[in-house]
Known about the structure:
This protein is α+β, with helices and mostly antiparallel strands. It is built from two helices and five strands.
Amino acid sequence: MEGTGDIAIGQVVKSGAGRDKGNIFLILGIIDYKYVYIVDGEMRKISNPKKKKINHLIIYNTVFIEFQDKIKNGEKINNAYVRKLLEPFKKML
């Protein structure tokens, strides 16, 4: 993967490198063609997202449209909501 062209806000990703390797996250924001902000609602909360390189992520095809819509509309999102969305993916680990 070379850039953020295939990435969307609300997309499920897995960390492939770093201390958080193997953890599941949601894309909270796209910084530029190399970096995104990721959150999981536990260690990386909405108030303190992790800046991560795209090429250190394993991209899943799942995109939560309702999460994407809430971000675009400026609605308040809490960490419990993020944890609830990611729960089925964490059970697969």
